[in-house]
Amino acid sequence: MRCFRPRLARAAALLSVFTPLLACGPDGSAPPSPDVLPGQARALATTGHQAFRVMTYNVRGPLDTGVRAWPNRKAAVLQRILANNADIVGVQEAQAPSGGPSIPADLIAGLTGADKPYGVYNPGGGSPKLLFFKKSRFEIAPEVGQGNEALVNPYASSDTCFSHAEGKKIAWVGLRDLASGQVYFVANTHFAYAAACSLGRLREAEQMASFLATKPGGLPVIAMGDFNSDAQGQSTPGETTLTDLESGARLFRTARFDGVTGADDATFNNAWNGSTSTKYQRLDYIFHNGGALTSSAPAIDRTESGGLTPSDHYPVLATIRPSIFTAGSTLSPTPSGTSTRTQLFFADVTGDGCADRVTWNYAVGEGETWVAKSKCDGGFAPAVKNTGATSGVATTRFFFADVTGDGCADKVLWRPNLGDGEVRIYPAKCDGTFGDRVAVTQAASTSDATRFFFADITGDGCADLVRWNPTQKSGAFDAFVSKCNGTVSFGAAVTSTTGANTSAGTRVSFADVDGDGQADRILWNPAQEGGRTRVYRSTGAGAFALFFLHEAGTSGVDTSRFYFADVDGDGKADKVFWRPGFREGRMQIYPSTGANFAGSPVMDNTGFSNSENTDFFFADIDGRDGADKVYWNPGNYDGDTKVFRALAP
User: Fold this and answer.
1) Transmembrane segments in this chain: where (predicted)?
2) Are strands 293-300 and 316-322 parallel, antiparallel or unpaired?
3) Phi and psi dihedrals of 325, rounded to 5?
4) Element (DSSP H or E) covering residue 298
5) Is the pLDDT at 4 greater than 70, yes or no?
6) pLDDT for the residue 649
7) Residue 583 gets which letter from DSSP?
8) Angle, helices 241-249/198-214, rounded to nearest 10 degrees
9) What is residue 30's predicted lDDT score, i.e. its pLDDT?
10) Residue 324 · residue 294 · CB < 8 Å
11) Predicted pLDDT of residue 17
12) What is the pLDDT of residues 110-149, one digit of tens each?
């Protein structure tokens, strides 16, 4: 478990960092544009970015007859673009063959002009990669300009793949956001098609990666298109086109998924020509180059018109928005950091508003704890050994929380067979050391199934003590409210049967989800409620009432980990979901709205990990509000801790 006590003046805003982590811890309607998520307004001041919606759409060239002929589906294509209301739209296969209907002319006429919402960059050519942008939101930045980069064709003219790779280009344009002044380098492309033509795509990816790594000149990059590659699909399994592009240009996908591509993941419509094939393919992607940018709300629009989708590709969308955490990290040496027996805790034991790092390893020395004071910049001073309250017993549990109200986290020690199961608290001296122990006997337990939590459930600035044992009292929770009088003193047990749980597999956390200054109780069990998290709102006196069940971000996998902390600095605890291997090790963040968690996550591309040995922690390390993210894996970086600072001001 990890607990954190910020200075009292900020208690209401940062209660979430008390969280005991893990076990101790289309209908076609227009979406909002931009897709602004809770807490984002404050982040904008730091990053200079404001959220905007992007769409990539392969509209299919004029290759068909009958109902699928371009004149018969033109209106539906335009309707999908307008209905999705994206701020930037890139289209592919907008061909203009001689003697036939001109798709680019039709799209430009339908989307631009005095009475239309969009402006356009038309790079020209037989199949221009048009880039449309909302005139109310963006303008072409003349200092960046625009261009049309030809892509390599590695095939001989006699090769079947020659025509599939011929004439491919990257259309690009600099766009200035009228809301923020930020300029973006926006690119749109279409790679070689057909499964057999992977060499063409690999060479195109290599060239595009090199182009985007140099041409934008440090500008944030948005790239999109039909890349005709799906390493998780049945047509091009294992192909490295996308990963090569990502690594070469340091790009990040706005949507990641696990397993084999299925119907819900595909961006190509297998049934376009009446096929019943189940070779689902995800071919269309949106990327960004990270840094102060990330993404949220990915979507695939499968709306039909007259029983037919307007194209054989679906429109693909995502919101580009400010990142939650900085891309760079601070690396700090950690005592016994290479040992899997080491435990880490983050709490403000000095009272300066910045969470310090505490480490403990029962098998090292006398089992002492080591305190590394926060430098309030993401780093820590060298660790200093505490000589008191040591333990060389693996079953000992330590906690750090401010139970007295002086702004400094106190040290708590409990072991079921120690002192008749009493809870021992060592008051902080606010200098990184702790005083003599005080026994809390009314909360004693001799059962190793008992779990303790420390969180301010009453909103007075002092951490209260909550005891739960799934094998006792029908799984009810007992709260011992701190008297908050400057001493270690708690009231009698207040029993809460609401949300009682008798499963040892249930994970319990405490965090202020609604922003009222009182930590709420959160439960998750992979085998209960369809893997949904359940939030019970604190009533302020030790009892709780059911608040909501979060429908998104569910998991029935036991190795999933949920964290609850105010990462965006708006005073409300957000939900963070991570599982080794899931979404290729990326965290999914569901910001709190105050009444629920968001229905769509924000992708976090910082400090990702596929290792089950990785631990994550959330606490305000730098004192700027917003819980920072700490990465630690004893097998990596010599066991040092890495801090990714929250971007919230």
Assistant:
1) none
2) antiparallel
3) -120, 155
4) strand 293-300
5) no
6) 62
7) G
8) 10
9) 39
10) yes
11) 33
12) 999 999 999 999 999 889 999 999 999 999 999 999 999 9
Instruction: Evaluate if residue 334 carries a pLDDT over 70.
Output: yes
Q: In this structure, what is the dihedral angle of CA atoms 442, 445, 450, 453, given to the nearest 10 degrees?
A: 30
Strands (E), 369-473: 369-372, 384-385, 397-401, 410-414, 423-426, 438-440, 451-455, 464-468
Q: What is the DSSP secondary-structure string of 141-183?
A: -TTT-EEEEEPP--S-TTSHHHHHHTT-EEEEEEEEETTT--E
Cβ count near 241 (within 10 Å): 24
pLDDT 10s digits, 191-229: 999 999 999 999 999 999 999 999 999 999 999 999 999
Strands (E), 323-445: 330-332, 343-347, 356-360, 369-372, 384-385, 397-401, 410-414, 423-426, 438-440
Confidence of residue 396 (pLDDT cuts 50, 70, 90): very high
Q: CA 519, 453, 483, 429: dihedral to nearest 10 degrees? A: -110
Mode of pairing for the β-strands spanning 183-190 and 221-226:
parallel
206 and 234 in contact (C-beta within 8 Å)? Answer: no
Residues 6+ apart with CB under 8 A from 271: none
What domains can you pick out in the chain, each with its CATH number? Answer: 52-322 (3.60.10.10), 327-646 (2.120.10)
Give backbone dihedrals phi and psi of 226, rounded to 5 degrees, phi first.
Answer: -100, 110
pTM: 0.90
Q: How far is CA 327 from CA 185, 243, 581, 607, in A?
A: 19, 19, 20, 8
User: Comparing C-alpha atoms, which of 501, 517, 512 is closest to residue 547?
Assistant: 512
**pLDDT tens column, 161-179:** 999 999 999 999 999 999 9
